Amino acid sequence: MTALALEEPTERVGRGWTAALSLANGAIWVGWYGPLQILLAQQAADFAPGTGLSKESLLAWVTGLGAVVSLVANPLFGALSDRTVSRYGRRTPWIVAGTAGGALSLLLLGTADGAPLLFLGWCLAQLTLNAAFAAITAAVPDRVPRRQRGAVGGWLGAAQILGVVAGTGLATLAGGVGAGYAACAAFTLVGVAPYVLRHPDLRLAAADRPAWSWRRFAAGFRLSPRAHPDLAWAWLTRFLINLGNALVLLYLYYYLRDRLHHPDPETGVLILTAVNGVTLLATVVAGGIWSDRTGRRKPFVLWSGVLMAVATGLLAGWQTWHGTLAAAALLGVGFGVFTSVDFALMTDVLPTAHDRGKDLGVVNIANSLPQVAAPALAAPLVNHLGGYRVLYLAAAGVGLLGALLVRRIKGVA
Description:
Layout: H1 15-47, H2 55-82, H3 92-110, H4 115-143, H5 149-173, H6 177-198, H7 214-219, H8 229-250, H9 252-259, H10 265-294, H11 298-317, H12 321-348, H13 356-383, H14 388-405
């Protein structure tokens, strides 16, 4: 199979392919969110006294620097996979290498005895797991026809939240920081294996590979908003909604412990993640299928973003455990629909088949850049500008702006 790698897909993918890709996607999210939800926060609290930083600031620096790495890694490895000619296809070599490297990076984090190794391990984890994630994401426009992308995006979104829940559960219940990292690493490896072993990738013929030039390669990462305005507006919508969500999640552990005085903040985070996951699962696949059937994307993105802003506002105005539970449930409903339909919308506005991996890597910057911006915004808001109430009001405003901007896209209904 050669020319098929660059053709617009028309044949619907089967349930087995969708299930295997979704499992692989969820496994990558286990590798990210076990650390992000629990383990990095615990290590930051342990190591902060020796750094002269608060635990919040140390966590912000670690996650922010890791996010900077992911900003570069995702489009870079996506572009490399676009140009890969191998017997195993374009995407599979990067999925395998990225997953293996990610597992080793998580094991390294489990041995960290201070802030320097914490920084190094998390940056390596972001580098390698983003290589795998870029290739997994690009498989969708490679193989899935447009009329099925909402549904497939829904299943990928379901796997994503299950990965967040599973990663949080493994980190909480494994029995210590080292064991938590080992459990996340093992799950990541096992979860990716069925897709790699059972579903051969589309191969790119050597004749179809673009002529290599470092200058041309670097120039390819510049996507002009003037030339591709729909992609630019879709990117900005995703960035702002994800930034609002990142502002909510970053200090959730500390919010429960320091603002609500929850007696067991680790379990509290796990409960909130589970509640959010249940409501997200209730809408993520259904929202994607509904969007496919109506042939429309923008109304789903708009109203899901509005609902998420309302839920975030609850965290500012109803600062109790029950209020936080309600907000987590509503955020799940909104983010479920947004996750599946926005993914389909993004694949609908990609410029060319030759650069699907690279372009989706640039799109995925809208997922990782909020991880850089959120710590820079959240730390001063919490520590100096009004605390958690101001933080969540700002998050609601940012997310609402993102939802409204989806109306500027012209080429998608």
